[in-house]
Amino acid sequence: MSDTITVELLSRWIHEFSGLVSAHHDQLNSLDAAIGDADHGTNLDRGFTVVAAGLATAPQQPGDLLSHVGRTVVSKVGGAAGPLFGSFFLCLGDAIGNDPDLDSRRFALGLRAGLAGVVARGRAEAGDKTLYDVLAPGVDAIDAAAAAQYDLPDVFRAGLLAAEAGRESTICMLARKGRASYLGERSVGHQDPGATSACLLFTAATSAAT
Ligand code: ADP
Ligand code: MG
User: Fold this and answer.
1) Fewer CB near the last or first residue (10 Å), C or N of the chain?
2) Domain contains 123
3) Number of structural domains the chain divides into
4) Are 28 and 21 in contact, with CB atoms under 8 Å apart?
5) 62 Cα–ligand 1 center, Å
6) Which domain holds residue 89?
7) Which pLDDT does position 3 carry in this prediction?
8) Do residues 155 and 208 lie in contact, with contact meaning Cβ atoms separated by under 8 Å?
9) Which residue of 73, 131, 197 sits with most ligand 1 atoms within 8 Å of its CB, as the best mutation to test the pocket?
10) What are the distances in angstroms from CA 103 to CA 4, 7, 106, 115?
11) pLDDT at site 65
12) CB burial class (10 A; 0-12, 13-18, 19+) of residue 38?
């Protein structure tokens, strides 16, 4: 089976993510209500509804498509999540470029560039209880599975398993970044909303590739 990551697959990925964000709108708001201001689902859903509606007319080359998604996310998604998710897609799009033979190893490098974009923007580190705690292990797992030449669906499945473990790991963390950090010890015992939505990126990639 070819493991080429086509622009159609990337477009399906974004479309699936947007659908999952809508389906989890209330859950993301409730998680944010516990340790933030209850708007994370609303922020993401509003922006990704616009992104999904624009997919048919977006550039049909891999890097250009994801950079376009990143720009739309920056301008349409509010809160901390907008610039963070936006940087992720902008840096990912930049890194993969428009090579039509994009394979999973190059895509993994692109995801790592996306993660670096998130860090450049928010300065989060492992254990700060943010979306970094999902993206970093998810990207590591995708990188390792791509290097081991897994089939594409299995590459993304490996990423999803690591991302889910990362999401669960945020429950016992004390928040050190963003609004949740104002709560100090009271942030412990709650799953991070951004980690929860970031995990949906891996769910969406897995279904787009399967
Ligand atoms: P806001 O806090 O402005 O209301 P959202 O509710 O949309 O923004 O997003 C909150 C999520 O953003 C948090 O759950 C966390 O995962 C993520 N986050 C906040 N600050 C940072 C940061 N500096 N680096 C990485 N992620 C962050
Ligand atoms: Mg919020």
Assistant:
1) N
2) yes
3) 1
4) yes
5) 27
6) 7-209
7) 82
8) no
9) 131
10) 5, 12, 6, 18
11) 98
12) middle
One-letter identity of residue 136? A
Alpha carbon distance 88, 185 (integer Å): 29
Residue 1 falls inside a structural domain: no
- DSSP-derived 3-state class of residue 209: helix
59 neighbors 65 (Cβ within 8 angstroms): yes
41 lines ligand 1 (CB under 6 A): no
Residues in Cβ contact with 71 at an 8 Å cutoff, skipping those fewer than 6 apart = 86, 90
CATH number of residue 47's parent domain: 1.25.40.340
The CA distance from 134 to 115, in Å, is 10
Instruction: Look at residue 2 and tell me if it is in a domain.
Output: no
Cβ atoms within 10 Å of 129's Cβ, excluding its own:
27
Q: What are the tokens at 149?
A: 């030449």
C-alpha–C-alpha distance, residues 15 and 32, integer Å: 23
Cα(58) to ligand 1 centroid in Å equals 27
Residue stretches of the chain with pLDDT short of 50: 1
Residue nearest atom 19 of ligand 1, based on CA coordinates: 178
